[in-house]
Amino acid sequence: MKTRIKIIALILGFMLPASVQSQESEFGNWLIYIGNKKLNDTWNIHNEVQYRNYNFIGDLEQLLLRTGLGYTFNEGKSNILIGYGYILSENYLDNSTEKVSVNEHRIFQQFTSKQKIGVVGLSHRYRFEQRFVESDYKLRFRYFLAANIPLTNKENNKLYLSAYNEIFLNTESNVFDRNRVYAGLGYRINTNIRMEAGYMNQFFEQNSRDQLNIITFVTF
Q1: Domain residues for 162?
Q2: Over pLDDT 90: what percentage of the chain?
Q3: How do strand 60-73 and strand 120-133 relate by DSSP bridges?
Q4: How many C-beta atoms surround the C-beta of residue 5 within 10 A?
Q5: What angle is formed at CA 32 by the lines to CA 26 and CA 34, rounded to 5 degrees?
Q6: Distance between CA atoms of 105 and 88, rounded to whole angstroms?
Q7: What is the pLDDT of residues 49-97, one digit of tens each?
Q8: Is residue 213 a contact partner of residue 196, using CB atoms and an 8 Å limit?
Q9: What is the CATH number of the domain that holds 179?
């Protein structure tokens, strides 16, 4: 138990500097649903809905819809997925309360792998995106590292700590796009459903934004 507490403290300590360095901060809210439909032992369909607000609720920043077909191998530890996403963004004009709508169609390929270090579950995700943003075409690479730490014993393994860091890199001159750091508390309702609530700091070159994330994971 002492080792587990030290790991949690280390992760939170790692995340703190990212929050402190923000120059401008706005608090928003993301409501997220992530579903995984198993077709058999190897094939699955991924589906995802994210409703993102600038403030706590009621001021749409982005609506994201994502789906894809995945193939699992290596005894369930690895997954390759090819998918499509539609993103509607409501962007504020500079120094104005007016918004402009931006439509994006996105094709992506990703590889996910899982590993265990003691009680800590780690997940690595490598994603390559081809982004059709209105009349522009952009390419972006993302690397996602997540940790899952159980807070209860194996017989009652329902409560857990979740943390991740994800970096976004463009292929153009401004290579650094953004970085997301997250820590949350999760609860397994049953073998197919779990929920998380947590804090995320997303920072760019000149500013940052704080988010409250509420996430539902469903496997069916």
Answers
A1: 2-219
A2: 78
A3: unpaired
A4: 11
A5: 150
A6: 9
A7: 999 999 877 899 999 999 999 999 999 999 999 999 999 999 999 888 8
A8: yes
A9: 2.40.160.40
